[in-house]
Specification:
Radius of gyration: 27 Å
CATH class of the largest domain: Mainly Beta
Number of helices: 2
Oligomer: single chain
Helix content: under 10%
Distance between the termini: 50 Å
Strand content: 35-45%
Number of domains: 6
Length: about 750
């Protein structure tokens, strides 16, 4: 009976989501100019469907919020909105955060959804720039600390008008960072306020009211500290890596298993360990807690030593300080991965082919494990396992590597066959990631002979921080019209050579385990790269790779996605200092996630780039563990590419194709999970959600009649259908002809 109830509830929930309402509108500035790539946040008092809990230390999007980004015309739409009451705000760097308000009273307007299939349109917001002299909005900042003068992280600070001290101003609050600092902007001048620390759960005051006034002459108030009375006890211990060595500046997060809304002041709280890996969390009231080590990888490690939340240990605080709560990075689980390399035309085995792990960022800054795909955090200096193997007479190869997210490439040292990344890709930009969480022997390659060889060659030398690298470095050449591409490796003296190149213009770039992909001449984004003209044998195309070893207490992490919300893999996020020097980088994994540890607290210029997709350059402020998502104006896909975990084959087709105007989309689900099937146009804009819900293992099919989520017919053209589930993601191209 209990199982039957849950199945019924699941069916009702999925049906409700498929028939739910939508909210849409437009975001512009005060001159009427559309604002693209603007984050739009829909807020509810209740948990929103489809928003899973987030890891501690990286709160991401709260469970009662949903996020979309505007397109080039400043338009946005929230689909699958359930019945309820909502508020909405827009957020983009360079503009003041703006809620959807009544233009007369200035009050927050509530959006009511009271029926399925209801379409609420025209929810428009006008934003004001905050980087010009016309900005008359102020801010306050300071430190939250206890009466023992120790900074407190994870404390919510709110602001109210002095005339209404018990009513917090919506969206004008902040959470104190790792060093206790907070900042609240968007406050009007010539106003009197009170600031206060508030309970994360009840949003009620837990400190005295601190009055202040902002004026046009003094709109920014700094060093405005807030003190809390000392309460509770402390928890202390040490963070250790998998080798048993203390982790300097490890970030430890504590959060309630069962929130104590009466006494607890924290939703979660965190602190950094000292140089010796020792940490102390203060102001902890009695209760039961989980703890996690975060910030040194995408995946947290829970006390005492597990990446699995369900296996986390419990820390109990009763009536005394708790000591010796040590967290140990588990020794990475090792798996054997292998496969066969054959001739694509004859299927005969190829011996002597090198198969390598060649994902940029592996081993970067001494954090080998996280950069190869979300393994538990570690501080070991680079991978301590083999990163390449050579095929035997049967064409077989194998490597023993830790659990993680990898990119594999097969390379022919004799240059007879074209280099190939797993799943048939010829460059790292469209390489399919392999998620390794078990032994597998299915990572196979079918190499093509270099067809129609050209008569020219291209060569040069790769250096790293001014010296010749001690290991082979990957060099890639892609013609500007994308009709020729290949990859090669440097020799022991740092030189490389491409043979049999046709005349034309080429992008040439190199990347290593430690340095970001760098184009000729020594630039990160492809738009600034110098094309290499080939009309004869070309030499001297040298590239200098640069990187810096950082040792700071903070980190930057998040996701990179298209305008349609699809995660983008193989994207580089390079950070530059205020002198323009690239100091660190990361590369997104199969889920579009990235993580950059060891950062010094300062402003960075982030360059987010992947070949033939418009690059994004923006300023990012790092102060503690910071989460920052990026959106690129990229199509969801460029071909009928299928990206899957080996051993979990996914078929995705439609028939007829081309079609007018109805087609049936069919796919199989290799593992029962929550599945999302969506349709995007060439601009990467989502057109239609076919399904979002739990699907069983097996075949499924859905009909699309050429309409968008609002029921309007779309035009002729190319569309992409994507399906996403646990550990699989497939893309298929469709053509509508009218």
């Amino acid at each position: 009976m209990k199982l039957r109830f849950w199945i019924f509830l699941l069916i009702v929930t999925v049906a409700a989501m498929l028939n739910a309402a939508s909210i849409s509108g437009n975001i512009t500035d005060d001159q009427g100019i559309a604002i693209s790539q603007c984050k739009v946040i829909l807020h509810s008092q209740n948990v929103l469907p489809g928003n899973p809990p987030h890891d501690p230390g990286d709160p991401g999007v709260p469970e009662n919020e949903a996020v979309v980004y505007t397109n080039e015309q400043g338009n946005y739409v929230f689909n699958n909105v359930a019945v309820g009451s909502y508020s909405l705000r827009a957020d983009k760097q360079g503009y003041r955060d703006q809620s959807f308000i009544d233009p007369v009273t200035g009050d927050i307007r509530v959006i009511e959804i009271d029926a399925d299939e209801q379409e609420v349109e025209g929810v428009n917001i006008v934003m004001i720039r905050c980087d010009g002299p016309h900005d008359n909005f102020g801010s306050i900042s300071g430190i939250v600390k206890g009466t023992d003068n120790q900074p407190l992280s994870g404390i919510m600070v709110g602001v109210a008008y002095a005339s209404q001290p018990d009513s917090l101003i919506p969206f004008r609050y902040a959470e104190s960072r790792w060093d206790g600092s907070y900042h609240i902007g968007g406050l009007a001048t010539d106003q009197s306020y009170v600031a206060k620390a508030i309970n994360n759960f009840t949003m009620t005051s837990i400190s005295a009211d601190y009055p202040f006034t902002l004026t046009a002459q003094a709109p920014m108030l700094s060093n405005f500290d807030i003190s809390l009375p000392y309460m509770g006890y402390s928890i202390s211990g040490t963070a250790y890596d998998s080798q048993g060595q203390p982790i300097p500046h490890a970030y430890i997060v504590l959060y309630n298993i069962v929130p104590n809304t009466t006494n607890s002041i924290y939703l979660w709280t965190g602190t950094f360990a000292d140089q010796n890996g020792h940490y102390t969390l203060r102001h902890i009231v009695p209760g039961s807690y989980n703890m996690a080590l975060v910030g040194h990888s995408w995946t947290p490690v829970f006390y005492p030593s597990t990446p699995d939340y369900n296996s986390a240990g419990v820390v109990t605080v009763a009536d005394a300080n708790v000591e010796g709560i040590d967290i140990h990075i588990p020794v990475p689980q090792m798996y054997t991965v292998g496969g066969y390399v054959t001739d694509a035309a004859t299927s005969l085995p190829l011996s002597g082919i090198e198969v390598r792990i060649d994902r940029p960022g592996m081993g970067h800054h001494g954090h080998g494990d996280p950069s190869i795909g979300g393994c538990p955090a570690d501080s070991t200096n680079g991978p301590d396992f083999n990163t390449h193997a050579t095929t035997d007479e049967s064409g077989h190869w194998s490597l023993t590597i830790p659990q993680g997210d990898y990119v594999f490439v097969a390379f022919d040292p004799t240059h007879t066959y074209q280099a190939q990344f797993y799943a048939g890709a010829n460059t790292p930009f469209n390489a399919t990631h392999v998620i390794v969480n078990a032994d597998m022997d299915t990572v196979n390659f079918a190499l093509n002979l270099i067809a129609d060889p050209g008569t020219y060659s291209l060569s040069g030398t790769i250096s790293e921080n001014g010296t010749i690298p001690t290991y082979p470095v990957m060099v890639v050449a892609v013609s500007s019209d994308e009709d020729w591409e290949d990859a090669t490796m440097t020799n022991s003296d740092g030189t490389y050579m491409f043979h049999n190149i046709h005349a034309g213009n080429y992008y040439v770039l190199a990347y290593s385990q430690a340095a970001p992909p760098t184009y000729y001449q020594n630039v990160i984004n492809w738009e600034s790269a110098n094309l290499v003209a080939i009309n004869g044998n070309v030499v001297g195309i040298d590239i200098q790779l640069n990187y810096t070893l950082l040792s700071g207490p903070s980190s930057l992490s998040g996701t990179v996605a298209s305008l349609g919300g699809t995660p983008l893999a193989n994207v580089t996020i390079a950070l530059s200092d205020n002198q323009g020097n690239i100091v660190t980088f990361a590369t997104t994994d199969a889920n579009g996630q990235y993580s950059i540890p060891d950062l010094v607290n300062q402003n960075y210029t982030a360059t987010v780039t992947v070949l033939n997709v418009p690059s994004l350059e923006t300023t990012v402020t790092v102060n503690g563990n910071v989460s920052h998502d990026f959106v690129l104006n990229a199509p969801t896909a460029t071909d009928d590419e299928i990206q899957t975990t080996p051993g979990k084959a996914v078929s995705l087709t439609n028939y007829p194709n081309p079609f007018n105007p109805v087609t049936t989309i069919a796919f199989n689900v290799p593992k029962a999970s929550t599945v999302t099937a969506e349709i995007y146009n060439l601009k990467g804009q989502k057109v239609k959600t076919l399904v979002h819900g739990f699907l069983s293992t097996g075949s499924h099919q859905y009909s699309w009649n050429g309409t968008n989520d609002n029921g309007k017919t779309v035009g002729s053209g190319v569309y992409f259908c994507t399906i996403k589930g646990d550990s699989f993601h497939s893309v298929h191209k469709m053509v509508m002809l009218k």
